[in-house]
Structures are given as structure tokens and as C-alpha cells.
Amino acid sequence: MAALSKSIPHGCYEIGHTWHPRCSRAVLHVTQGALAESLRIYGTLYLIAAILRKRKLDYYLYKLLPEILQSSSFLTANGTLYIACFCILRKILGKFYIWSPGFGAALPASYMAILIERKSRRGLLTIYMANQATETLFRMAVARGAITPLRHGEVLLFCITAALFMFFFRCKDGLKGFTYSALKFIVGKEEIPTHSFSPEAAFSKTDRKIKHCEKASQPMNILALTRKFMDKVCKHGPRHRCCKHYGDNCISYCIKGFVRMFSIGYLIQCCLRIPSAFRHLFTEPSRLLSLFYNKENFQLGAFLGSFVSIYKGTSCFLRWVRNLDDELHALVAGCLAGISMMFYKSTTISMYLMSKLVETIYFKGIEAGKVPYFPHADSIIYAISTSICFQAAVMEVQNLRPSYWKFLLRLTKGRFALMNRKALDVFGTEASKNFKDFTPKLDPRYTVVPPELPLELS
């Protein structure tokens, strides 16, 4: 509590908008930069999403632009209201406390901004920011020595999360919406208990394929012979009566799952690297080869492929051992499949899935009447989470996720890095640790504390 009461007498120009002494002009500058970046982000995002979802022409004519403008207004308002609240809070308090330039200014700004966004997107934004805030708090605790990081902790967290998610996936009405569809795409519909694919239809379909190949192909057609051989291998092999992959035996079922998801993971990582590769196409043509032979491409493929194959293999093994199909198998299979993250360690993925799991459990508790429903809980959680991240961005940027810090710099056109963090070092958070070479050039006519005087806590 004593640390929270410490303060410095500097003005908002000396700490925050060091590029211009007038608050109104500073707010205008941030608004211009944030609006341009917001339109670029959401314009691209919504256009790609509309193409992937195969939206009809009416959506492009009547809904696409309003949605882009609404989401862009939300993000712009978040930046604009933050710098405005930053100045207003300084005028109200008359000084800066350790919490006021970051958390204090961002809390009302973030809450007002999220109300502009569509309700359907508030939950997704809340999960994202809660994930960011949780990781930031963890980094802060590690920096202060309060927590000792666990080796492979992100893998352990992913194992627990995957186990519970796969259990809900196997249960009737356990998951809904995008989460259910995503897991169905990854592990396949064969692992759903209500899968209605009959063995007779599967075998007849397979037989028709083989007969068609026999009639349509010539005896020396290598492709047809290979296909015929693979069909026979997949069809004639060990498969438990409880397994629902009627067209494959258990071994080929696991192998096919690995190959499919490995290919998808490899292609996803390649697509993510395409913009940077083509940017250097003419200056460094050799970088184009790294698009296909990059280590991360194979790591993501191995992660997704091994996750699916381990999950399917464990499920089949437990069906053979216990001679039944049980939802509890998903707990064991999901936990073991989580070890696949060793190929592609990602704290971001683990934290996001954990946040999504907490949300799922919370809403299940509401449906069961075990947990009370709090109106506007998503908006409140978003505001608090964003405020925690802004507190770190101002007072200890070294503990903020680097990707989020780069996002803040893009949103403000680099102005977030122009804060006078050397003046904030007196609070003991090493605010200027990453800005040792930067000292803002302030106009003495608008400063409260002359720049040459030593800084002291009041």
C-alpha cells in the first residue's frame, strides 16, 4: 500500500505525450494513427473471413463495411480514450502514482471502448485480452521472484487443457459452436459417440471403390495398383468392434490422421511466411527456398500430426483393453496427446486454450444453475485485462508479450515508445530498462519539474 501512495509531480506532457505539449493535439495525433491502423487491420481481417466463409453478395454490399467501421471505431476509441483519460486523471489527481499512468487511465478507456464493439465479438476479445493479462501477470511475478517458472510448464498446461477439452468433446452436448467444429475437424467425426456412420455403408462404399478401380484401370497402372493395395491394407487389419473408423483398421487410422494434420500444419506455416518471403523476393531470392524448408513448418506439422495420431492411437488402445468405448478415454488420450506440444512449444496457445476452457466451464456452470450469471462480465473482464497490459506497457514493458508491444507501437505510430520512462524509474519497476538511450526533448515552458533537476518521490 505504501508503494501505491508514492507519487511524482510531473505533468502529462512530461510523462505521456512528450511529442506535443497540448493534450488536445496529442489526442488528435493518436486518433489519426489508431484509425488508420484499425481500418487496415479490420478491413483485411473481415475481407479474408468473408471469403473463407463464402459470404453472399448481400453481405459485401450491406454488412461488410458497417462491421469494419464498427470494429475500427472500437479499436480507435480504445487508443484515443486512453490518452484522454491519461491527461484527465493527471489533472484530477494533480500528480502521477504508480498505478495511474497505466492501469488507472486504461480502465475507463477500455470499458467505454468495448461497448462500441458488437456484442458477438466481445467474448472473443475478452478471451484474447484475459490471455494476455494472465501471461503478463505471470511474467511480473517471475521478475519479482514470487514464482519460479516450471520447466516445460506450457506443455503441462496444454496436456491438462487438451484432456478436459477432449472429454467435453466426447460428451453429449459437451461443446458447441466453433470449438466443437474445430475439434471435429482436427480429430475427425469418428471420435464422436453419436457418429451415425454405419459399417455396412462404409464397407459397401469401400468395395465399390475397389471394384471401380479394377474395372477402370489397366493391369499395369501403378497408381491404380497402389490405390488397390492401400484399400486392402486399410480394410483388412485389426479394428475393435467399438471403433467407428469402419473404413480403416486402427493402425492405418492413426497413420492417416498424422499425415493429414501434418500436411495441414506444414501448409499453414508456409502460408504465414509467404508475405515476408515475397517481400525479399528480388533482393534475396534465396529466402524463397526457406519458405518450404523452414524448421518451423515441420515443427507445427509434427505438433498437429502427432497430437491427432497419439489421441487416436490411445483411444483405440483403450477400446481394445477395456472392450468398450467410454468418454473417460478422452481424458487419458487428450492428456497424452498434449505431449505433442514438445514439437512446437507455445505459451500463447496454452494460455489461450486455458482461457477458453475456463469460459466453457463457466457457461456450463450457468446452464446447470451452479454459477451465477453476471451481466456485462465480458466487458468488465476485458477492461481489467487491458488495463493490466497497459500498466505493463508503461511501467515494465520487458514483462509484456513482445507481439502485443509491437501491436501497440503500430496502433500509436510508435508514440507509445516516446513516454518519459526515465521519470518513472523512481517507482522501482525499471520502466526505462528497454529505453536507456531515449530521453524526450521537452519544452521547459510547459514542464512542471525542470528536466535538469533530480527526480524524487513525494
Write structural notes for this entry.
The chain is mainly alpha-helical. The protein has helices at residues 2-5, 12-15, 23-52, 57-93, 100-114, 119-143, 153-170, 177-187, 199-216, 222-235, 250-279, 287-290, 295-322, 329-337, 347-367, 377-395, 402-411, and strands spanning 7-8, 96-97. A two-stranded antiparallel ribbon has the order 1-2. Helix 6 crosses helix 15, helix 7 runs antiparallel to helix 14 and helix 13 (295-322) runs antiparallel to helix 14. The longest helix has 37 residues, at 57-93. The protein starts with a helix and ends in a 47-residue tail after the last helix. 34% of the residues are buried. The model is unreliable at 195-219 (pLDDT under 50).
Got a strand count?
2
Low-confidence stretches: 195-219
User: Helix count?
Assistant: 17
Shape: elongated
Query: End-to-end distance, in Å?
Result: 15 Å
For the biggest β-sheet, the strand order reads 1-2
Return the string of H and E elements. Answer: HEHHHEHHHHHHHHHHHHH
Keywords:
458 residues, mainly alpha, two-stranded antiparallel sheet, 1% strand, elongated
